[in-house]
Amino acid sequence: MNTPRPLPPPPAPGDVAPGHALQWISAGWRLFMQAPGTWAVQALIFIIVITALGFLPVLGWAAAPIALPVLVAGMLAGAQALDRGQALRVDHLFEGLRRHPGNLLLVGVFHLLGLLLAAMVAAASGGSAMLTGAAIGAFAGMGMAAGGMMLGMLVFTVLWALLMMALWFAPALVMLHGVAPLDAMKLSARACVHNLLAFIVLAVLLYVLLWVAMLPAGLGMLILIPVIAGALYAAWKETFSPLLGLPTSPAGGDSQPAPPPSEPPRP
Fold first, then answer.
1. Alpha carbon of 89 to those of 35, 54, 59, 239, 252: distances in Å?
2. Which residues of 125-150 are buried (b: 16+ CB within 10 A; e: fewer)?
3. How many CB atoms are closer than 10 A to CB 85?
4. pTM of whole model > 0.90?
5. Where is the signal peptide, in residue numbers (predicted)?
6. Nearest residue to 234 via CA among 88, 22, 72
């Protein structure tokens, strides 16, 4: 029996204009509107699974970060199905468990290890100043301790942002292109750094939308989570489309297929 040949890892990502971040969110909204009920059910199951994993005894703190890329990959598979004119199913959410479970779980393990490393580096950088401030005492010591805490928070925020860059495209690259987990995270971070301004704009837009979604008792998350999945799919297509042979128009767009080449005149 012939084994399928693995796809080669894609090369460096292409250039993306900062204003395209809004187009990605618009593409995510269009994908959501194609099957809003199914997307909302997927989002509800997504929230329930991540929350339930967080409450597991002993290992709950580790289970949710590991499972996150698997569920995200499933939603991306659903976005790709809609983009190809197929029907969205609720069980698309678990498509990652059927197609690339080991590699996606490895992405989750790297995600968890990155979080632990960021926390340890932040604690080491800010903890020394806090201990020194506590030893000095008085007002100067209090100021040094507070500065150490702020330094630790700043270091963790920077490292967490870098980790999110590595995680952003990784589920899509593993699920939709078959890239190895660590290579996918490296390529994702490279893509985000290469197009840093576009992803800063996207992060600001998502931050605002997150607060809006939380206003109606958090029910807006049933819409925002699928929209983010669709935006991620659109961003993946545009960032890597020149390299993977994908259509260059955003997901859910109105692009028309190219006409077939005309036949040569017969003698």
1. 9, 26, 30, 26, 17
2. ebeebbeebeeeeeeeeeebbeebee
3. 7
4. no
5. none
6. 22
